[in-house]
Amino acid sequence: MPELGIVIVSHSADIAKGLVQLIREVAPDIPLTATGGLEDGGLGSSFDHVQVAVDSQPAKRLLAFYDLGSARMNLEMVEEFSDKEILIQQVPLIEGAYTASALLQAGASEVEILSQVNDLTIQK
Q1: Each residue's pLDDT expressed in tens, for the chain with a length of 124 residues
Q2: Which of 3, 44, 71, 115 could join 38 in a cystine, given CB atoms 3.0 to 4.6 angstroms apart?
Q3: Cα dihedral sign for 51, 57, 59, 61?
Q4: Catalytic positions, please?
Q5: Which burial class, exposed, middle or buried, applies to 46 when counting CB atoms under 10 A from its CB (0-12, 13-18, 19+)?
């Protein structure tokens, strides 16, 4: 079982799908799940979709990347019901998920990955 995985949560199914496609070019072998949009196909963040993305991950520790506030809120709620540790990252979605994924594929440690991802932290 992999130790660390990546979860992407977007308000748009197209953004989530496109980001997975981009990441798979540099990180074809990592545990990666993504979700975006609502049950009806519209824009938004769905607790149920986030829960499926987390539950379907083979890894027990997850680096989670999101686009907007309610996606983070859903990640936080799912974390309360999950036996997995979810490390929610406060970084730009595309840059953060891409960087973490490439480093994970290259065999970097969690400490190394978090160090580089933290350099991308959004300051208010």
Answers
A1: 679 999 999 999 999 999 999 999 999 999 999 999 999 999 999 999 999 999 999 999 999 999 999 999 999 999 999 999 999 999 999 999 999 999 999 999 999 999 999 999 987 6
A2: 44
A3: negative
A4: 11
A5: buried
Residue 61 sits in which domain range?
A: 4-118
CB-based contact 99:42 (threshold 8 Å):
no
CA distance 47 to 74: 5
Alpha carbon distance 20, 49 (integer Å) = 16
Residue 123 belongs to a domain: no
Q: How many domains is the chain built from?
A: 1
Q: Which two tokens stand for residue 52?
A: 């499926």
Does residue 84 form part of some domain? yes
Give residues with Cβ within 8 angstroms of 61, minimum separation 6.
3, 4, 5, 84, 85, 87, 110
| Cα 84 from Cα 55, distance rounded (Å) | 8
